[in-house]
Amino acid sequence: MADSTRHLSILTVGLLIHLSHQYGFKNCIGDQYSNNLTFTCSQRAEKLISLIVGDLPASAINITIGNNNVSHIPTESFIRFFKLENLSMDSNNLKFIDGLAFRRMHQLRTLILSSNRLSKLNCSVFQDLYNLTYLSLKHNLLEDLPQSLFTSTPQLNTLILRNNSLHNFSVVVRSVSSLSQLKTLDLGFNFLTSLTHLNSSLPKSLTELFVCGNKLLSLACADSFLTNIRLLDLSKNVELSTTAFKGVDLAQIRYLQMGSTKVKIFEFFKVTNVDATYVDFSDMGLTDPSQIIKLCTFFRKSKHTTHMTLKLNRFNMLPNTSLTNCPQITGTFDISSNNLKQVKCLEFLEGQKHIKSSKIEHNHIKRLLSCKGTKYKLPLTELSFRYNRILSVKSDAFAHTPNVTILNLNINSIASLHFGALRGLTKLQILRLDNNLLTELWDSTFEGLSSLETLNLRNNRIAVIFYGRFQDLGRLTILDLGGNKISHIYEGGLRGLKRLRNLYLDGNNLKQIDSIEFAPFQNTLEVLDLLKNRIRFTHEIFVSPFVNLSRLRDLKLDGQQPFGITRLPHGFFRGLHSLRNLYLTNSRIDHLASDTFDDLTGLAYLTLDNSCNGLVHLERGSFKGLRNLKRLSLQNMGLQNLSKEVFGHLAKLQGLYLTHNVMQHIDVEVLNSLSSLSYLDIRKIPLSCTCQNLELQNWTLNNYKVQLIYLHSLRCKESIGNFFFNFDTKVCFVDLEKYMFFVTAAVIFVSIVVPLLHFKLYWKMKYGYYVFRAWFSEQWRKLREDEENCEYDAFISYNFNNEAWVLEQLLPNLEGNGSSFKLCLHHRDFAPGRNIVDNIVSAVYGSRKTLCVVSRNFLQSEWCSLEIQLASYRLFDEHRDVLLLVFLEHIPERELSSYHRMRKVMLRKTYLQWPGSECTDPAMAQLLFWKQLRRALRTGSRMEDEDAAGEKKSSGTAEGDQTDSARANS
């Protein structure tokens, strides 16, 4: 019974393991690195949610269902996913969600239902979402919210209702009033006309309220309505006027935005108690600079302000005295998106002694003039002039900002940096000059920038890098020269970049690369981007350009123009032992030598997508050096087959991407050789639905380790309507009758021969089998050891029905009462957990003798029969006197006639009869019995010659006679 229970448990565990793995999902893709915890189900044809997520594992934690045509979520649609924490269902054309649709999703924390067509919500739709903290319903058609909608979401702290059709603020307040943890409420771009609400109030926990882009005419709320609000966005309410704020308590506000309204800022400060330092003045109609000067008078109570924002006011100048009456700005001064044409060395910031950042983006500034000799030094550490119209930067343009560490001059029209334009910026760490019109770099362009760490020159018109242009940039770690027209780098052109880690040269006109160019930073470079240049090789090269880049981690050689790199010379990647990622897409390589990747022993990701020139044949051993490769992308390579000789070395490969190839058959042996494979993409491959792929079909349906992307969507090339996973395989078994004939004949033959062998040779075969097992498990050596090395004096073979006699009579008389025998018993000395047959073999051959306690039950026991058989074989075959028989009851000879081995032993060996109750003096008879038994156990183990054997037999007969005499006397 115990064994049956154990086997059932094993089967149950095996079944659970079997079910816990997935071979593929019909409408979802599991993240390769999330261990079946994260799934994306996008752009599928199914309209039912059950068909989209029906085959996902219940252990999923993150599910994204986007850009589908699902209009309805029924009740308990996700009840299986008891561990789900994040669910995103945006852009699905949802119209209806049933009550209890998210039932028992107690672990859900994030729910996104954005960009759908929901117009109503059932009051029980969010029931059971006890741990929900983030809910987004933006871009829907909601007009109303049920009062009890959020009663089951006590942990909700962020609620996004932006871009709906809500009209009544009171309805919203009534619905969210129970949310004691709510911190952020976004009601932007609805149709609210006022903030009036009755019989309920916003949660005291609410600190951020967004009601921008509505149609507010008035606030019409109680004085204490905004007591707990810290961030209030009322912008883009175009009809909201100053009078709406009369009587409203704004003392606790820490950020207030009112841009694009009718609010008159100066009147506003007269009717409210808000602190001016917390107001965002963007788009407040401050077109006249004098208004800014007047604005500062409202800051008299404050000595400092963290930020001052004046975006979108469309003023075209800022006088030097604009901020004279303003408090000290300790953070950012932002005057972006105005009509400024010049800033005159930021004179308007002269009195700001603590300012850290200034943003002057999206204006009309054309030049940055020289500021040499300015009497003031601004403490700015960040300065941004992005999105202006700057054509040139004069010498010493930043002499007044020596502490700047981040300077953004990108996305302008800068054609020239004058000599010394960046002079004095000794603390500069990040410089962005990308997306300009620079054509050349001068010797002094970056002179003195000894602290610079990041330099971005992307998307300019630089054609040549001359000698020593970066020689002062000893600390530079990132240099981006991508998107220029660089065709040549002079020797020494990159001199001085001794700490460079990332070098981007993509999108240029380089035709060749040389190891000399990388010499200054060959021990530090980790990322090298050469994408979309003109690098090609028409002949073999002798020295790899990367041979000294010992720390290079990422190398991009994609899309060399106009036809790709086409050829990879022998030893091209020599020395790149640390390379982790290699990109060779769009290269049209016509041949891959077998030693191409031999040096890339550390490579983890390789992509050769679109790198074919017609149909590609990969040579044997092409990937043999990539023993650590984890992801291999061979999409649109023109591959006709997968061979074990090519892919068999990729023992650590986890992801294999094969979409858009031309193979009609995939060898299952190749897939089985990829022992670590967990992700396989074979979409849009013309797999043939024929017997050739029968084994592949079985593999795809029965593997529980590899995820096949959209397995159930793979179609047969022969027919548009047929799918690969269930194509008809009956035709593959046309010769079934022939195989059945041979199988039947074999079964009949075995059925006849096996019983005959069992009847004639059962015990000899069984004994041979056990002895072979003992030898195979290195026990044969133990069986041949001398008797002096035996662990026990005797192994006691008995049936469990005679266990009482063994424990009460045999053990006390042989191990106790002054005797020194050491006995081996099943229940006491067998090794736990070991096979019982191995235990019996060890006991028989590990004891000097085997003592069989014979009874009728003993004769009927298969285990006892095995024990006496092993002992008798040892007796006859090894010529060792190792077997003793003790009869507990009188068994007539006719009953022993069927036990051939037993009778044969009795003819050759002594045996003892236990004196029963019929003896006249049982005590005396038993004393004599124990004396004879001890003597028999002490005798030698070697059998004498035939005469001595006869004497032993006579002696044994005399002993039997004495026993019988004692029985008769009693």
TrEMBL record:
Keywords: Glycoprotein, Immunity, Inflammatory response, Innate immunity, Leucine-rich repeat, Membrane, Receptor, Repeat, Signal, Transmembrane, Transmembrane helix. GO terms for molecular function: signaling receptor activity. It is a single-pass type I membrane protein. InterPro entries: Leu-rich_rpt, Leu-rich_rpt_typical-subtyp, LRR_dom_sf, TIR_dom, Toll_tir_struct_dom_sf. The keyword Methyltransferase does not apply. The chain crosses the membrane at residues 739-759. The keyword Lipid biosynthesis does not apply. It comes from Gadus morhua. GO terms for cellular component: plasma membrane. Belongs to the Toll-like receptor family. The lineage of its organism: Eukaryota, Metazoa, Chordata, Craniata, Vertebrata. Residues 1-22 form the signal peptide. Its main location: membrane. This is Toll-like receptor 21. Residues 941-970 are annotated as: Disordered. PROSITE patterns: LRR, TIR. It is found in: Membrane. Residues 790-937 form the TIR domain. GO terms for biological process: inflammatory response; innate immune response; toll-like receptor signaling pathway.
